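[audit] Reproducing an earlier prediction to check determinism. Same input, same settings, fresh worker. If the C-alpha cells differ from the archived copy the diff job will pick it up downstream; this log only records the rerun itself.
[audit] input (211 residues):
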Amino acid sequence: MLRAVMMAAVLWTGPALADDDFDRPALLALADPALQPALEAADQHVLVVRHARKISPDCNGMSCPLSAQGEAMVVRLTELIGAPPVDRAYASAACRTRLTAAAGGREVVAHQAVDGYAVDCTEGEMIERPRSDAFRETRQEPVRWTLTGEHSNTSCLWMVEFAGPEAAGEAGCNAEGRLAETAYGDVFWLYRTGEDWHLTVLPGAFEVDAD
C-alpha cells in the first residue's frame, strides 16, 4: 500500500513546454525574481522538503501518518513540481517523509532516519542504506532534478552538506541544526552552477490551510 502511494502523482494536464521554457515553471514563479535567471541556468537541482504535516504534533514514530492537511500539502507539492517526474526521489525511512517525497512522481529510495538506526516504517522491514549514499549519488551521479523528504533536523543536513552551514542558517536552521517547529511547507531549493552549490527558500510553497 505504501509503495503504491509513494509512486502516485498528479498527472500534468497543461500545455507542452517550449524548448526554451524552464521545466518547473510553477516552482520558478515562486522564486525571488532576482534569482530566477540563476535558477534557470543551473544544471542540477535538489528540492529539500520537510515532511508534510503529520496526524498530531506528538506523533513521532516511524509509522506516524500524515494528517488530512498533510495529504493536501502533498497534492499541492505535486502540482508545483508538475511533469515530468523528478529524476530521483529520496526520503528518510519514516512513512511521513516517504509519503511527502512521493510528490515527485518517482519511486522513493529510503535511507535511515538516523545513521545506524535501521528501523523502517513498514513493520518487519529494515533499512540499511545510510543518508550518505544519497549525498554521494547526488554529487557523483548527478541528475537534473532530485526531491528529498526529510525531518526538521535532517533537512538541515542536506543544506549544510551542499550549501554550507552559513547558508543553512540563513534558510532557517538553528544552532542545533533544526528548522523551527512551526516551519512547514517550505521548499529548500539547492541548485548547482559549475562546481558551486547555492540555496534559496520558497517559504510556505506547499502549505495549505487546515480544514
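[audit] rerun output stored. Observation attached for the diff report: Residues 1-19 have pLDDT under 50 and may be disordered.
[audit] end
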